[in-house]
Amino acid sequence: MEFSWDVIACLGLAVLVHVLVYIFVMQKRAKCIDGRHVVVTGGSSGIGVCLAIECVTKGAHVTIIARDEKRLKAAVDRLELVRQRPDQKLQYRSLDIGGDYEEVARVLAETEATVGPIYALLNCAGMAICGVFEDVSVRDVHKLMNVNFFGSYNCTRHVLSRMKSAREGIIVFTSSQAAMFGIYGYGPYAASKYALRAMAETIAMESREHGVSVTLALPCDTNTPGFEEEEKSKPRETKIISGGGGLLKPEDMAKAILKDALKGNFVSIVGAESWLITMLGGGLLPWDGFFTNLLHALAIGPLRLFAYGLHKYFNSIIRKCAKEERASKNGSGDKVEAK
Known about the structure:
Distance between the termini: 92 Å
Helix content: 55-70%
Largest sheet: 7 strands, parallel
Strand order of the largest sheet: 3-2-1-4-5-6-7
Shape: globular
Mean pLDDT: 87
Low-confidence stretches: 20-26, 334-339
Radius of gyration: 23 Å
Number of helices: 11
Number of strands: 7
Order of helices and strands: HEHEHEHEHEHEHHHEHH
């Protein structure tokens, strides 16, 4: 009995040592942005402005970029409320980042001239237009790609070579859970977010050895002005499929994104549902940590059956809605004939 307790005590001590080593040695230390220049696109509202606020509270000089000047001014007023020091520089630029690259580069260079080199670029500008694929206009598809993809592309293209030369920097791409798998009603929107995911993965692989870290944020539905606008164009099927996960607070997503970005984590998600979808839909994503990947390896096989069931469930929703729509049309036709 005495021997058994000795063994248990030794095992317990070994486990404790391993936990302490993991916490204090193996875990990544967060980078410091105090006094560094951070640029946040889409910084006038939603996750963007919440990210800007988080950066200001950490002592960063912050430039926010968006198109609506009135919203930008209101956002800067919010940043002023959490300013940490009198010498902190807070500014905005009204700019269509999805437009002409030369203009985007000129404005970003101008902000660097007044505030200093851009240490972190947080690409948060985005929009959603939903609808059955053929119902979304060609003009709206181009608008989605310009804002969601080319906006991030233009800004990243300007800062990347400078960050590589300085051998330091952080780039965040705010994509979506829609980048993990296509969902009814999200066609062109999901395509634009898939494109962001691919760009983030590529740049991360190309830039790691140059001291530049990349974080891919994959938010689920978040309570932002953009989400309110998105709801207006969502087909009924899309609302049912995506409505089960609830709404995340933009402040919570912003905190998670900045924490992951400062620690150099590639994937940034919040919640068990997002973790599950991201793991199943992103088998080749560069997740950090041996034990995280070991857990995925053990879990992903059985979870494939869950994914199969999930798709069956989504398809049953689509069939049910189609059946109800046909019944509704037939009912209307009968009424017209009766008159």
